[in-house]
Fold this sequence. Notes:
Keywords: ATP-binding, Kinase, Nucleotide-binding, Phosphoprotein, Transferase, Two-component regulatory system
Strand order of the largest sheet: 2-1-3-4-5
Pfam families: HATPase_c (PF02518), HisKA (PF00512)
Protein name: histidine kinase
CATH topology of the largest domain: Rossmann fold
Structural class: alpha/beta
InterPro entries: CheY-like_superfamily, HATPase_C_sf, HATPase_dom, His_kinase_dom, HisK_dim/P_dom, HisK_dim/P_sf, Sig_transdc_His_kin-like_C
Order of helices and strands: HHEHEHEHEHEHHEHHEEHEEHEEE
EC number: 2.7.13.3
Amino acid sequence: xxxxxxxxxxxxxxxxxxxxxxxxxxxxxxxxxxxxxxxxxxxxxxxxxxxxxxxxxxxxxxxxxxxxxxxxxxxxxxxxxxxxxxxxxxxxxxxxxxxxxxxxxxxxxxxxxxxxxxxxxxxxxxxxxxxxxxxxxxxxxxxxxxxxxxxxxxxxxxxxxxxxxxxxxxxxxxxxxxxxxxxxxxxxxxxxxxxxxxxxxxxxxxxxxxxxxxxxxxxxxxxxxxxxxxxxxxxxxxxxxxxxxxxxxxxxxxxxxxxxxxxxxxxxxxxxxxxxxxxxxxxxxxxxxxxxxxxxxxxxxxxxxxxxxxxxxxxxxxxxxxxxxxxxxxxxxxxxxxxxxxxxxxxxxxxxxxxxxxxxxxxxxxxxxxxxxxxxxxxxxxxxxxxxxxxxxxxxxxxxxxxxxxxxxxxxxxxxxxxx
Length: 420
């Protein structure tokens, strides 16, 4: 395609009209996956095509060899425009090799600029050579810009569908992995409940024996040791009861003491808190500490948030728990019971923060399923609550704050509550 022929087509149809052909939003953002690779080592085809695409807001990258084309296909691209004369000698086999190594979801489109005219022995030979390339679209030269752009748009649309299939396949793999982990956790949970049930009776017997031993141990040192033993035994008993509650407590909402649930979770995580050298403080700013809720769901929400805080403070830090009333003039002037869990951990990356409640989004690498905060948000929505998060990774202000807002009408001032 000569520059005169290409530009003649451009003059007949203003560039702005091509936006309607390509359906390109004015503020479209581009990426590797939407860029077009251009390989036309002779003439002015490469410069003319790249200039046109860039004027239309399309990301375009000119390569100088088949080797460079292969490298860029591997990095990610929407399509490639290749002049036929670039595929000489073994070059077509080099391109074929990278296209054969595509994953199952991929069928990379190649727009091949060929010389027009009648069928000849040479043209038949070239047709057979390019057949293994797969998804090849032929455009005869000289060509009009409209023809090039419409063909490219069709190729890019097909490529985007391929990327969508890739994303769905990856999400399915994550989902299957998460289901396997969830099944393991379910089996572990049932086993833990069985163990907790079996050790509950011996724990009660040991508690009674320690009580009787107090009257037989007059020395001050012996009494001190017995006191420490009773404290540790009480903690083990609380952990066993906490494990059994997940399987014995009612499924319907009842009156739950929020402060007691927090204390129960701190008891459960006591060893991890000590091992990680985490300083804990709990503050209750309101007498309203009981809410109508499912105890297991509330406990799961708090356990997930405290567990995340501990994961972010593996080398020490501060964990702050606060319960209080909160008034929002911006939310229909409503009153809420606010429960805040704040840490001084590593914080959440600002780019990840907006999607932190989406499934399979995790900051823990291979050790996380990406389902904890998603499940937490689903439980909160189910109960008609709200959750908010603030986080910073700045060195002097690092940490994350989760706030759960419970409508005041779900709270009670009564001191009666279900044991946490």
